[in-house]
Structures are given as C-alpha cells and as structure tokens.
Design a protein that fits this description.
By secondary structure, the chain is α+β, with helices and mostly antiparallel strands. 49% of the residues lie in helices and 21% in strands.
Amino acid sequence: MRGQQPWRSNRSRVLRANATSAEARLWSCLRNRGLGGFKFVRQAPIGPYFVDFLCRGNSLIVEVDGGTHSEPYERAADAARTIELEGLGYRIVRVTNPDVYDNLDGVLDGLLAILEAR
C-alpha cells in the first residue's frame, strides 16, 4: 500500500483552483458523469505528472493545450510525456484551447466516440 503523499493532493488542489478558462469550460461538461455516464476526474496525478482530465475506467487522458504548448521544446516535452503515459497503458487525447472554445460539441462527440469504442 502506498503511503500518504500530501504534496500530491495539495498540488492537485492548486491546479484545480487555477484552471484555465478552457479547462473550466470542458470540465463543466465532463463533471458528474456528464459525458455519456463516464466518470472523469481532473488534475489527477499519474507518475510524476498531473493530467488535466482522466477517465480511470477507460484509461483515457484528456489534455487541454493552450499557448504554452507551441514552442518546439514544449512540443518535445509533450511528446515525451505522451510516450511515457502511453507506456503505462493510457490513451492520450490532446485538444487545444480554440477547439474547446470554438468546437466544444465536436470535442465532446470525439471523446464520447473514443470512450464508447473501448
């Protein structure tokens, strides 16, 4: 059994409290099993990472990428993180802030299709 790690809980709380507007908008649709009855949590710790949204039952991670994911070194870090998380058995879906703002229904439809296919 793993011991308590209060720093991880505290970090998750801070991240949830400081969610971007795109994350808050997507969360309003995912929370309380709002997407097809699938349960999501937000800012979940996995290994050394904190993922934006996680459906544990389907091992699906949803990352909302804003402006801080546009530089080559940031994209390389995201790619390395994706490889490591996929190695742990997770599927990662990345959406951008404009996706969430301009095509929220499309994002939700895509996520639901992925979840129902698994």
